């Protein structure tokens, strides 16, 4: 039983045209390239949504309030009068808030990055060694039952040099 279709392309332009056409048709695609194509992919297909920045913001706000609560709560629990100075002094509260804002913001960013990039991944991935040398790969994966012939035809129309039906996953 085939799980996916892998198209190998000689030129990046053909790959990007095929990716745009298949993405518009509603297929899930993955692009493999021996060289970075980030800007070209974003220009042709569009940028993917990046929700990590929202988690960074939420983590920073949580860190700010945690730092304030920690500093002011500790000062309220252990009152140490110091010759007329206020018990809730702003300098230590701001310093602790600044540090916890950065610390918890970075922690939320790291956890959300690992979550959205699906790391660590323990399942096998589909890969072809030709992609590392001189070919660009376009993997159509997901729910394509019964549509393998249509996907192969579309890949050939866009100029794929080779189209493979992938039955087993490999590393």
Summarize the structure in words:
The protein has 171 residues and is an alpha+beta fold. The protein folds into 2 domains: 4-49 and 123-166, Alpha-Beta Plaits (2-Layer Sandwich), CATH 3.30.70; 52-116, no CATH class. The protein contains 5 helices and 4 strands, in the order E-H-E-H-H-H-E-H-E. It has a 4-stranded antiparallel β-sheet, covered by helices on one side. Helix 3 (52-77) packs antiparallel against helix 4. The longest helix has 27 residues, at 90-116.
Shape: rod-shaped
What class do helices, strands and sheet pairing give?
Answer: alpha+beta
Biggest sheet descriptor: 4 strands, antiparallel
What's the helix-strand series? EHEHHHEHE
Uncertain parts? none
| Alpha plus pi helix count | 5
CATH class descriptor name of the largest domain: Alpha Beta
Our Rg estimate from Cα atoms comes to 26 Å
Strand order of the largest sheet: 2-3-1-4
Instruction: Tell me what the CATH architecture of the largest domain is.
Output: 2-Layer Sandwich
Number of E-state strands? 4
Strand % is 5-15%
Alpha-carbon distance between the two ends:
19 Å
- Helical residue percent band: 40-55%
């Amino acid at each position: 039983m085939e799980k996916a279709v892998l198209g190998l392309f000689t030129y990046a332009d053909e790959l990007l045209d095929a990716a745009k056409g298949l993405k518009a048709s509603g297929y899930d695609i993955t692009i493999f390239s021996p060289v970075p194509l980030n800007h070209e992919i974003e220009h042709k297909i569009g940028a993917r949504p990046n929700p990590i920045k929202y988690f960074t913001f939420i983590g920073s706000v949580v860190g700010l309030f945690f730092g304030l609560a920690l500093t002011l709560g500790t000062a309220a629990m252990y009152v140490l009068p110091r010759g007329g100075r206020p018990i809730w002094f702003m300098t230590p509260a701001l310093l602790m808030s600044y540090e916890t804002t950065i610390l918890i913001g970075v922690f939320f960013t790291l956890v959300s990055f690992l979550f959205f990039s699906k790391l660590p991944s323990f399942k096998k991935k589909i890969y072809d060694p030709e992609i590392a040398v001189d070919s660009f790969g376009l993997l159509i994966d997901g729910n394509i039952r019964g549509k393998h012939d249509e996907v192969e035809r579309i890949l050939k129309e866009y100029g794929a040099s080779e189209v493979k039906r992938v039955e087993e996953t490999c590393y």
